[in-house]
Amino acid sequence: MHLVQREIDMLHGSLWDKIIIFALPLALTGVFQQLFNAADVVTLGKFVDKNAMAAVGNNISLIGLFVNLFMGLSLGGNVVIARFIGAKRPDRANVAVQTAFLLALFTGIGVMVLGEAFTGLIMEWMQVPDAVRGMSEAYLRIYLLAMPVIGLYNFEAAIFRARGDTQTPLISLIIASVLNIALNLLFVLVFDWGVPGVAAATDIANVTAAGYLLRGLMKTEGVIHIDPRHLTLDRSTLKEMVRIGLPAGIQGMVFSLANLVIQSAINSLGPDAMAGSAAGFTIEINVYCVVGAFAQAATTFVSQNYGARKMIRCRMVIRYCLFLNALVTGVMSIIIVGSAEPLMAFFSSDPNVIHDGVIRLYYIVGPEIICVIYEVLASALRGYGISMAPAILTLVAVCGVRLIWVFTLFQSVSTYECLMACYPASWIVNDIFMIGAYFFYRNQIKVMRSFDAA
User: Fold this and answer.
1) For the chain, what percent of residues have pLDDT higher than 70?
2) Staple partner for 156: which of 100, 187, 213, 411, CB 3.0–4.6 Å?
């Protein structure tokens, strides 16, 4: 496996084309990652019933809580490894790669154990209707068994991205997604396993994706090579990864907790709203994959150039990421909103489910371009090593607005439309916060770098 050809030189030459080359495979990776949930929802909606579909949709935000922890921590690994690569320290970069691998494994095992222990209580807290609860709990328990490999996949993908390779993680997700769809159809149509069947199919696909990347890390030479027999955990490197990654991980988890509160409110509106919301989410999250991909590009490109002390180039990265992200996200939003009803009809033939799914697309995908500003600026700050501030600001702005909305306005106007409106409202507040934070820290970053240089 000759992965060197997939590296991107982030330190020299033009930027806009390299950002696109980096971000588009990453966006497609996110799309295929979300295809796991979409395949589950579509299979159950088409071949079982809307209660089975709602059971999977009920767990989407909860699963996102666990995955966000992995993604946040892996972001810390990405930043540290990219910085060492930019600073021409391959020895330290390889130590960071090994440390990230072990951190992923131990975190995944811990999440699996805790998740299994509290699944029953979580179902009660979310007020899952009786018609859906048994299937919802079964899906979650089976899904949790794959948490160690899901953690490994996220860290392995971050290792590849740190040196500019976003194509290898994409290939692994394409293989896993095709396998997941095939197994879904086999387990549901042939074996009649229903909800447990699609959960088992997803687990097998996740193992396949993580195994493919591990094979790549073992076969490639140089900075990102891994030998499972000789792994080392470097405490100082681990501390830096956790310092950068944990705030992002906690931010993502609390973000998901706020969404769980919203999901609980959706549950109170009945199975139709649950199923429609699940279908709408599987579409909207693909747009967010694009937003996140260009934001991740900002993190990685800034990290390498910051390590190489190229501050002007760091600023250029941020400008390009903002422009390109807004352009692609805007076009996707227009296309999806314009074809909302046919898209929802693909998931279900129930008119009530289709109606609620379309409403979700109107309220979330329509204004999703708003997310571009805070995602890129927060990711750029993390590339500089500033992780706590954007995490706190996002928690206050996004989670605060959504929780207040659910417990005040939604109590007075208990409609699906009112609930969906909390998303764009929270994004606008977060944009204002993050713009202020970026300009505040931009001057301090100059001082920190000049001190380093001295």
Assistant:
1) 96
2) 213
